[in-house]
Amino acid sequence: MSLKSFEIVYKEFNSKLESREFEKALYLVPDLLENATCNIDIFYSLMGKATALTNIDKNDEVIETYKEIIHQFKNENDEIISKYLIYAYFNKALAYAKQKDFDKELKTYNKLLEKYISDISKDTEIILVKSYMNRAICVSELQEPLKALDVYKELIHNFEHSENENIQIQIAQAAYNVALIYAQSENNEKAIESYAYVIKHFENSQIEEILEYVAKALINKASRIKMEDNYEEALKLYDKVISRFSSYGGELLNQVALAMHNKSILLSELNKEEELFELCDAIIDKFANSNNEMILNVVASAGVIKDKERFSNNSF
Known about the structure:
Elements: H1 3-18, H2 22-27, H3 29-35, H4 39-55, H5 59-73, H6 79-98, H7 102-116, H8 125-142, H9 149-159, H10 165-184, H11 188-202, H12 208-226, H13 231-245, H14 250-269, H15 273-287, H16 293-314
Helix pairs in contact: 1-3, 1-4, 4-5, 4-6, 5-6, 6-7, 7-8, 8-9, 8-10, 9-10, 10-11, 10-12, 11-12, 12-13, 12-14, 13-14, 14-15, 14-16, 15-16
């Protein structure tokens, strides 16, 4: 068969994929393989087959197809095949994730990282970062969250200077996850240190998703240092969230409300009534018309405190 014959069948195959006629696309795979004239034709055909199988939830066949691709092309020197083979590893791992087979998923990420981490490029870095993040989840599932710390730390070390915004978001999340794990294991010193890392490295970001981690880190750090009776520093951290993010919307505004609520609790514990009542007024003024359930609960709490103030002032 001529190269043109493969191109014709491949064009028809892609047309079936685009129109979501996956069964009909799969019917063309034997023709594709029969008409393939080189390794890259075979590679594209098998990757397309895996895509079609994924879309009709033939997960076992998806895994077998990616196994075939990896076995056949893992030592291939062709530049295009080498560039896209990483997706076969990654998608195979995701197929294991669908089956909740965390052990095989983890082993696949391990092989992917072993093969590609020494040659990071713009083409591979986002897949490598996602593999690290998923690898950490697998380790947490199979062992315990503390065991995932090394995975997150290795990820941060390898990619913290990336200029890719999507990767910066993943690194911020990884750094925040490190702090959460230390907090959950009651390692207060390490938790505070890790929240401080998130704040220091990401507070000047212009990316809102990253700033959400900064706001959460400030609030959680405040809670942690409050446990060490460092009340004034905790208040300063809550104030930093309030002043820095009050003009934002969405999740950042939720964090502002949470910071104001936590600050009100601390002011109450410190018997700073004048500041407490002023803060409750500010909460009500800012959020009374919110439709967010969490924020409305904060407003309700502020209202209860104000009612107590009025009752106290009117008592005989």
